[in-house]
Amino acid sequence: MVELYILGKIRESDVEGDRLEQFFVVLDGNRQVCLPDPKFDEVYLPVVCSNCGTLNLLIGQDIECVSSHEREMGPERIHSDTLYGKCVNCGAEMEAKVDIYEYPLNTFQHFEIDEEQNCKAVKIGNFREFIQALMSMKPEILIV
Ligand SMILES: [Zn+2]
Q1: Which of 6, 45, 87, 129 could form a disulfide with 49, with the two C-beta atoms 3.0–4.6 Å apart?
Q2: In percent, how much of the chain has pLDDT > 70?
Q3: What backbone phi and psi angles, to 5 degrees, belong to 53?
Q4: On the CB side of 142, how many CA atoms lie within 13 Å of its CA?
């Protein structure tokens, strides 16, 4: 299963009041993740260029809640964005649409990818471990 890498902020409340905390999360379609009232800043998707076969990361920076409808356990929200990139090897434009489902409230697991232009989503083995090792150098970021 393809993985999505997401950076954003969630609201944390404690005795000192409300504050925004940065988070990093990997969605793999299997693991359920709890993110209270998240604001997504960036989402990254590894893809292979259909033109030359080079591995690239597509980046989306405008993830928004595009729809919400009621189900048994409350609203199901869909957060959506189109990710873009230019192949680092051949220069071809690539584009993929990502829909991230939130259901029940604050719970994330399922997502869908529509490879709209010149790319195929792929999984990078051990990439999550690499990012987590990197981010452990910045302890103020919450790794979910
Ligand atoms: Zn290419």
Answers
A1: 87
A2: 99
A3: 85, 5
A4: 15
Per-chain residues with Cβ under 5 A from ion ligand 1: 49, 51-52, 54, 87, 89-90, 92
**Cα–ligand 1 centroid distance for 121 (angstroms):** 14
Closest CA to 9 of 17, 25, 20: 20
Tell me the DSSP string of 43-57.
EEEEEEETTT--EEE
User: Can you tell me whether residue 141 is helix, strand or coil?
Assistant: coil
Task: For residue 36, report the distance from its CA to the centre of ligand 1, in Å.
Answer: 38
Distance 48 CA to ligand 1 centre (A): 8
Q: How far is the CA of 3 from the centre of ligand 1 (A)?
A: 21
CB 58 within 8 A of CB 67: no
Helix (H) or strand (E) holding 24: strand 17-27
pLDDT tens per residue across span 119-128: 999 999 888 8
pTM: 0.88
